[in-house]
Design a protein that fits this description.
Oligomer: single chain
CATH class of the largest domain: Mainly Beta
Strand order of the largest sheet: 4-8-7-10-12-11
Structural class: alpha+beta
CATH topology of the largest domain: Immunoglobulin-like
Helix content: 10-25%
Strand content: 25-35%
Number of helices: 6
Number of strands: 18
Distance between the termini: 28 Å
Radius of gyration: 24 Å
Largest sheet: 6 strands, mixed
């Protein structure tokens, strides 16, 4: 891992970090230890620097400086229409299904879904907070292998927070939107596609006169959804108590600004964890609960993904919560700024 030296505390930090995770000084003037000139980077979210040091992800630390840029509006590369015959279900109620949202290694959000459309069909994808009509991310994507996969949506300076988001899919089947080859399959105006899955562009006309149709689908998706505890109500209660605890670390760090549960979600939003790997479990032994948060560290630059865990103890009599390992310690604390 390439590193540079913080000019303030003189500790080695990841080469692309923009804020020192030790003393919080700006690293724009820091000098890499390999002799290359320092490069000023825009401010990144504090969780990025913490993850690079706390979780020991050396490769992750090498790329954290560029974690979040502006909104992306990107056209994906051309995809040739599939030679495989396309035969949509004439009774289909929707052409978009199995929507998921995951994070890339920078915390950006990648939206993917099945699309009952011919390969090469252009579809606009909008991504943003549920209930907010303004799209924070937008990309035109081509169907490939019956799938739509967006580029990574990002926002400036901070990760997308965990929660529920709205994803909108829009397309038309005319010469402005689609190639001749795609329209030969879908029919002009979507004439060969199931009517129940489309909306008319001319709803004010009699049904017999409506010949132009469009794809207009809005769905909701959960980002960083933790798998629900599968144990007993008593186990679920123990997990809830640990997630609600605000712990104090020794030295200058002091008491965490957030609870354990909020801190875990904050670190997850930085993109270091595989999004669908997050799970909480609890086990009781000798009257003391051990609560475990299981996750998978994302492998970067060809490195394998690494299953990991963090554990806390809960004394049900006193309500005291303690971290039991380094991962739990690091995931128990967030700064107050």
């Amino acid at each position: 891992m390439e590193t540079k030296v913080c000019y303030a505390c003189r500790k080695e930090v990841p080469a692309l970090a923009s804020v020192c995770p030790f003393c919080r000084s700006s690293l724009g003037a820091a000098v890499p230890t390999n002799g290359a000139p320092g490069v000023a980077k825009k401010k990144t979210h504090w969780a990025v620097g913490c993850l690079a040091v706390f979780l020991g992800l050396g490769v992750f630390g090498g790329i954290v400086g560029s974690i979040f840029g502006g909104e992306k509006k990107t056209d994906s590369g051309a995809v040739a229409p599939s030679a495989k015959p396309f035969a949509p279900d004439p009774n289909a109620k929707t052409l978009i299904s199995d929507l998921t949202a995951s994070r890339d290694q920078y915390g950006g959000v990648i939206v993917s879904a099945n699309a009952a459309l011919p390969d090469g069909t252009d579809v606009m994808i909008n991504f943003g907070p549920a209930g907010n009509p303004k799209a924070f991310g937008q990309a035109k994507v081509k169907v490939s292998g019956g799938r739509l996969v967006s580029p990574a949506f990002t926002i400036k300076n901070v990760p997308w927070s965990s929660g529920t988001y709205q994803v909108a899919f829009f397309s038309r089947f005319d010469g402005v939107w689609q190639t001749t080859a795609v329209r030969a399959i879908t029919g002009e105006g979507g004439a060969n596609l199931p009517r129940a899955a489309l909306k008319s562009q001319d709803p004010d006309l009699p049904a017999s006169a409506q010949t132009r149709f469009e794809l207009d689908v809005k769905l909701k998706v959960e980002l960083d959804k933790e798998r629900a505890p599968s144990g007993s109500p008593e186990e679920t209660a123990a997990i809830t108590k640990v997630k609600a605890a605000r712990l104090t670390l020794p030295g200058s760090q002091g008491r965490s600004h957030d609870t354990v549960g909020v801190a875990v979600k904050t670190f997850a939003s930085a993109g270091s964890f595989i999004s669908d790997s997050l799970k909480w479990t609890a086990e009781k032994q000798d009257g003391i609960w051990t609560v475990t948060f299981s996750f998978v560290d994302r492998g970067l630059n060809g490195n394998p993904d690494v299953p990991s865990k963090a554990q806390w103890s809960l004394n049900p009599k006193t309500g005291e919560v303690k971290y039991l390992d380094k991962n739990a310690k690091n995931l128990s604390w967030t700064p107050s700024y």
